[in-house]
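Onboarding guide, step 5: your first structure request.
Type a short instruction followed by the sequence, for example:

Predict the 3D structure of this protein.
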Amino acid sequence: MKQSISMKMEDQNLCSNLFKKLGAFLWKFLWKVLSVGPIPQHIAFILDGNRRYAKKHKLDKADGYKAGYEALLYILNYCSELGVKYVTLYAFSLDNYKRNPSDFKCVMNLMLEKTQVLLKEKGLVAKYGVRLLFRGNLKLLSEPMRRAAENAMVATAANNRIVVLVCVAYTSTNEIARAVQKSCIEKFNTESHALKVPNMRPDINIAYVEKHMFMDAAPDPSILIRTSGEKRPSNFFLWQFTIP
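The system replies with structure tokens like these:
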């Protein structure tokens, strides 16, 4: 009887392994088919829907955010396998500072925890060639989070397979206003002689403004995906998706 049960379990394990191998083969085949077409160079994601997911599945909000993080890792892996060069994640808006303090703390703690994990697992990050760039008003982050973000950018600076830009304390309107302000200051400083000529002002064009944008490290995205299925841009990449 025991021998029969053992043989049955062995058969089940064999079948399981076969299905896993078949699944892996089909998965690779699928990616080969997809990669034949034009692959977007830059995909942007609005990370959204974690709290609704938690509510739907009767989970704590923290578990909803953790589930979202796990899904994000899969997405990044797929993008890397397909050859997408840049991925931007809208992780935390300036408007999110107005949220319930417990929600705010939950998101920031998770972000700090995962950033620190990535710093500890440098070999894994290097293996996949991930370069991390944090973009936004980083001065508004807590000291531990800001330090972790800065360390992550330094630690992954040499990686070049895929660049992941994480937007925190960010809104598009803030990015545009900041870029215009910096453009004006730089132009007036470098062309101060123009101020001495009546009716003459330094010229500021689109290229000059874009040089001072948070997203100067990547080309404009080709695709914007909001993970919750909503269709609102939520003050994200308004400039990048407007400029032809």
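Each response can be followed by summary notes, for example: DSSP finds eight helices and five strands in the chain.
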